[in-house]
Amino acid sequence: MAGAACGIVCGLAREARCIAPHPDLHVRVAGLARGSAESLARALTRVRVRGLVSFGLEGALHPAFAPGILLLPSNIRAPDGRGFAADAGWRARIAARF
Asked: Can you count the helices (H) and strands (E) in the chain?
């Protein structure tokens, strides 16, 4: 798994099944246990994935979000308040595909 292009963490197995198998995509299912997504993300970074994506379809983030909305944040905030910027080039390439 070393050198993989992208690690993807999903909350549910049905979300993971939406992602076509590819040798450079390493998909993990966190489930609903508190902290499991963080543990999987940390494990993926230890094997040096070049990118990390949180992927989900359930849409429970906010009632104003319509089904099918694509969220591509420029930055995220961790529960402890730390901020993390998304890679601008990678984000732009993903946005261009949609």
From this structure: 3, 5
Cβ atoms within 10 Å of 77's Cβ, excluding its own: 10
Please say whether the beta carbons of 98 and 88 come within 8 A: no
pTM beyond 0.70: yes
Segments of the chain scoring below 50 in pLDDT: 1
Measured distance CA(9)–CA(50) in Å, rounded: 14
Cα torsion for 19, 43, 87, 1, to the nearest 10°?
-60
Residue 44, Cβ neighbours under 10 Å: how many? 22
pLDDT for res 33: 87
